[in-house]
């Protein structure tokens, strides 16, 4: 009768799981810090004290500072800010901004952050694709009488198949 052998392996995966969880937490913190750094780069159009106080308000969850905004100005600032990042991924930023938009009550820094996040997501989605052209489209439109619509789209065109 042939002999049977049993082999057992005991692997403790707690350390690996803890390390992965630590990595995820670190990546989340790094992402948040990157967002804050990006928003802080927009100080050219705002005073440093205003930006710092608004960033503090984001962290402390206090009331935001709402003012009447020209959203096209905010979009232009964001387009300038992400242009280098987009170019590094061979992505072109195309803006199509309606000129007679109504002013909107909003917190400037929060609007910048939302638009930056959406634009970066679009650039990241196209960064490693082989399609050409890769265009991040940012549009503003009047939506009804007193509303504004902002669209941020990533457009990719796949190259035609090569003929054999």
Written overview of the protein:
With 164 residues, the chain is an alpha+beta fold. It has helices at 14-40, 48-60, 71-88, 108-126; strands at 66-69, 91-97, 104-107, 134-142, 148-156. The chain has a 3-stranded mixed beta sheet with strand order 2-4-5, covered by helices on one side. The protein has a two-stranded antiparallel ribbon with strand order 1-3.
Query: Do you know the CATH topology?
Result: Heat Shock Protein 90
What distance separates the N and C termini? 62 Å
Q: What portion of residues is helical?
A: 40-55%
Average residue-wise pLDDT:
79
Which architecture name does CATH use?
Answer: 2-Layer Sandwich
Structural class: alpha+beta
Described by strand count, sense and barrel closure, the largest sheet is:
3 strands, mixed
**Low-confidence residue ranges:** none
What percentage of the residues does DSSP assign to strands (E)? 15-25%
